[in-house]
Design goal:
With 201 residues, the protein is an alpha/beta fold. The protein has three helices and 13 strands; from the N terminus they run αβββαβββββββαβββ. The chain has a single domain, classed as Metallo-beta-lactamase, Chain A (4-Layer Sandwich), CATH 3.60.15.10. The longest helix has 25 residues.
């Protein structure tokens, strides 16, 4: 009888684990406060985007795009109905509290007192970047000590990331198997990684 009870408890816990993971993949509450902004790195099979939310606004900035398969489902997970912007050729734009510029082939997002730079093998000046997202990398990336966190795609070759991984700077992987979320407020930042169901996108 004890074996049946123990086996039932184990099966219940295993079922609860899978059920909770499925729930996480279907809905994520960002729990934003008045002065907070979240940046969700949406890396899907066919696109790379930033979903930037505040309590009042939601904007989706598409950085790399083949088709929109999965984007609508991914955005629904965060209960967002964002304004959508395709940034391939944009030079300068202001959207809500976000200032976007493109210089030397690199996008810079200025949000609250922080700058997120999108490095796509063309960037040069990293000194004014608080955060860097390495979307594509075909050479070694030289780390600047003023960067707080470096985000990079999981398909970038490890030989180009050697200095990033050996530095004292926080570095986070952006993959199709999870949602990497950067939460900003006026005084600090936090990075959260939430697993998604494999193959969901």
């Amino acid at each position: 009888m004890k074996k049946v009870i123990v086996l039932s408890i184990i099966l219940f816990l295993v079922f609860l684990h899978f059920d909770t993971r499925a729930f996480v993949a279907k809905h994520i509450d960002l729990k934003l406060k008045d002065n907070e902004t979240s940046i969700v790195f949406l890396r899907l099979k066919n696109s790379k985007s930033l979903l930037i939310n505040t309590l009042d606004n939601s904007n989706l900035f598409v950085l790399e795009y083949k088709n929109d398969e999965g984007i609508k489902e991914a955005v629904k997970i965060f209960d967002s109905r964002p304004n959508v912007f395709y940034l391939k050729n944009s030079l300068e734009k202001k959207v809500d509290n976000i200032y976007i510029t493109r210089k030397n082939g690199m996008f810079r997002f200025r949000i609250n007192n922080y700058t997120l730079c999108i490095y796509d093998d063309n960037g040069y000046e990293m000194k004014s970047c608080d955060f860097v997202y390495l979307m594509n990398l075909n050479k070694s990336f030289l780390v600047d000590e003023n960067i707080s966190t470096i985000f990079y795609d999981d398909d970038i070759s490890k030989k180009w990331l050697l200095e990033v991984q050996e530095s004292w700077i926080d570095n986070r992987i952006v993959s199709t198997d999870s949602f990497t979320i950067l939460k900003l407020n006026e005084e600090s930042y936090n990075v959260v990684v939430v697993p998604s169901t494999k193959g969901f996108f």
